[in-house]
């Protein structure tokens, strides 16, 4: 230990690049400026659209949505993408705290009241590999910040699904069909539920989970994530 450490206390470093930052900050200015925040989103899936459109082309065509709306903070690019990878594959569990803050800010802007949070489950195999479920980590932090309770173990993952990134959009929906099971929970009847994930891509996963929640009596279902892409 450096003899001056006691004078300066703990060092605060950027969650992305490890540069020194001030106490109370999480990202350095440079990394923060490289997050591509979604300013104008599709009112259904949360994908960035131009300011004259309310919906993206895919949502304009699609009917019968199981969820009300997906809300994401940033596009899956640059520093946002790097943070997602560090949380998911780099063991940097604390990044979930940062994501929860950003999601909470967004949720307040949207003025949506949520009764319960839940999260996208992972298979036991993935859980063993990573040591944690990143979606659950975000949900737990979000719950602490917002005081919205988390429903633990609302879902079971019953099918080991193929890696979504290798599949086409259509196949992603098929891949997720029957992948989960929702346990009965009387509390959720008529309530507004938010499903938390780190990244929302095609909405295949959240569509499937929303369907199960509604079958179990949930009123409205939203999906919240840090990234869309
Ligand atoms: Zn940085
Ligand atoms: Zn859309």
Which stretches are poorly predicted, pLDDT < 50 over at least 5 residues? 1-6
CATH architecture: 3-Layer(aba) Sandwich
Sheet-strand content, in percent, reads 15-25%
At the fold tier of CATH, the topology name is: Rossmann fold
Radius of gyration: 18 Å
SSE sequence, one letter per element: HHHEHHEHHEHEEHE
Measure the end-to-end span: 43 Å
Features:
two-stranded antiparallel ribbon, 9 helices, disordered N terminus, 229 residues, globular, binds zinc ion, 35% helix, four-stranded parallel beta sheet, Rossmann fold
What can you tell me about this protein's structure?
This protein has 229 residues and is of the alpha/beta class. The protein has one domain (11-228): 3-Layer(aba) Sandwich (Rossmann fold), CATH 3.40.50. 35% of the residues lie in helices and 15% in strands. The protein contains nine helices and six strands, in the order H-H-H-E-H-H-E-H-H-E-H-E-E-H-E. The strands form two sheets. It has a four-stranded parallel beta sheet with strand order 1-6-5-2. Helix 5 (95-110) crosses helix 7 (134-146). The longest helix is centred in the middle third of the chain and has 16 residues, at 95-110. The protein starts with a helix and ends with a strand. The structure holds zinc ion (ZN) (2 copies). One zinc ion binds at residues 14, 16-17, 19, 27-28, 30-31.
